[in-house]
Amino acid sequence: QLQLVESGGGLVQPGGSLRVSCAASGITLEYYAIAWFRQAPGKEREGVLCINTRSGTTRYLDSVQGRFTISRDNAKNTVYLQMNSLKPEDTAVYYCAAQLRDTCLLVHGMDYWGKGTLVTVSV
Question: Is residue 1 over pLDDT 80?
Fold first, then answer.
């Protein structure tokens, strides 16, 4: 069955770090651009970072510059979002999504979505 499954979310204190993972089954992520989105309570979903098939990255939020990085391990069919120096405003459900193309072009829409993992940044 084709699916993306996020994991690694949880409660972390401000200033802390967390790595969330996106594992795929039924598709080979190597051929997909993969993006992380997030949706905070009461807000619209927004793109965070994307990684293309050659591991080039695109950032969509200025607020995560220097704090969040995206990476991929094709051997494990998994993409990661490393989040450092977390702030309360980073609290959201984080989703990964796959796009069957070499480059990141979120306006074209994503082909597959995970169900999300909740990240809560609080004392």
Answer: no
